[in-house]
From TrEMBL:
Name assigned to this protein: Response regulator receiver domain protein
Annotated PANTHER family: CHEMOTAXIS TWO-COMPONENT RESPONSE REGULATOR, STRESS RESPONSE REGULATOR PROTEIN 1
Classification via SUPFAM superfamilies: CheY-like (SSF52172)
Lineage, broadest ranks: Bacteria, Pseudomonadati, Pseudomonadota, Betaproteobacteria, Burkholderiales
SMART domains, alphabetized: REC
Any one Gene Ontology BP term: phosphorelay signal transduction system
Keywords for this protein: Phosphoprotein
UniProt KW Phosphoprotein keyword: yes
Modified sites of kind 4-aspartylphosphate: 53
Residue intervals of the Response regulatory domain: 4-120
InterPro entries given in the database record: Bact_response_regulator, CheY-like_superfamily, Sig_transdc_resp-reg_receiver
């Protein structure tokens, strides 16, 4: 059975690029336009991994990670931050919130898929 990954990014073109890479590798994909939209879609279904942007309107990625970690069903779901932010302070903030990996845009699909394969829950 294919694993499900949620991609959260306010850029539809970025969601499309990531979705194509993930589906090409055999994953099911859920999409969220921002943190709030993504939280609304986390309705108890199994999600093996979340990939989230940091800078988004409505609810940014760090706030989204903190909110996800409060949900019992998703407390242990690994989260990869996919962002243009490369500052150490932002990375530390993301890790403190619960992010497991940090991939900087622009990224190579193989780089992202490598992180996904390492972190995806069984």
């Amino acid at each position: 059975m294919a694993k499900t990954i949620m991609i959260v990014d306010d850029s539809s073109s970025m969601r499309m690029v990531v979705t194509i890479a993930l589906k090409g590798a055999g994953y099911n994909v859920l999409e969220g336009r921002d943190g709030q939209d993504a939280l609304a879609k986390l309705n108890g279904q199994k999600v093996h991994l979340i990939i989230s942007d940091v800078n988004m309107p409505v609810m940014d990625g760090i706030s989204f990670v903190k909110a996800v970690k409060q949900l019992p069903a998703y407390k242990f779901t690994p989260i990869i931050m996919l962002t243009t932010e490369s500052e150490e302070s932002k990375k530390r903030e993301g890790q403190a919130a619960g992010a497991k990996a940090w991939v900087v845009k622009p990224f190579k699909p193989e780089q992202l898929l490598g992180a996904v394969q390492k972190l995806c829950l069984p």
